[in-house]
């Protein structure tokens, strides 16, 4: 049986989509995207969830490469990873722009 491989683009967009697949993560991304510079502070104060839960969501976003962060004791700073943000934007635009169906519903 021949093993099928996914393209690099398919793997990248799937990783970004998985990381964005929770409303709390989307709220974190929206919050950080509106910042002019890296955010120093407690992001959990901006969201209706516990500190530990925010930490888990930040970890997922960081592992996917959508955000970056550094510990500067006693605080942690987070910001959008601009390079990967551009890649994700391009991949999602390309993906959603590929539908060629001109009708409201392709099933009609």
UniProtKB/TrEMBL annotation:
Name used for this protein in its record: HTH arsR-type domain-containing protein
Q: PROSITE patterns under this entry?
A: HTH_ARSR_2 (PS50987)
What NCBIfam families does its record include?
HTH_metalloreg
Q: Which UniProt keywords apply?
A: DNA-binding, Transcription, Transcription regulation
Q: Could you tell me which InterPro entries the record lists for this protein?
A: ArsR-like_HTH, HTH_ArsR_DNA-bd_dom, HTH_MetalResp_TranReg, WH-like_DNA-bd_sf, WH_DNA-bd_sf
UniProt-listed PANTHER family: REGULATORY PROTEIN ARSR (PTHR33154:SF15), TRANSCRIPTIONAL REGULATOR, ARSR FAMILY (PTHR33154)
Taxonomic lineage: Bacteria, Pseudomonadati, Bacteroidota, Bacteroidia, Bacteroidales
Question: Domain of life of the organism in this record?
Answer: Bacteria
Recorded GO molecular functions are: DNA binding; DNA-binding transcription factor activity
Q: Which organism is it from?
A: Phocaeicola dorei CL02T12C06
All copies of the HTH arsR-type domain together span 5-102
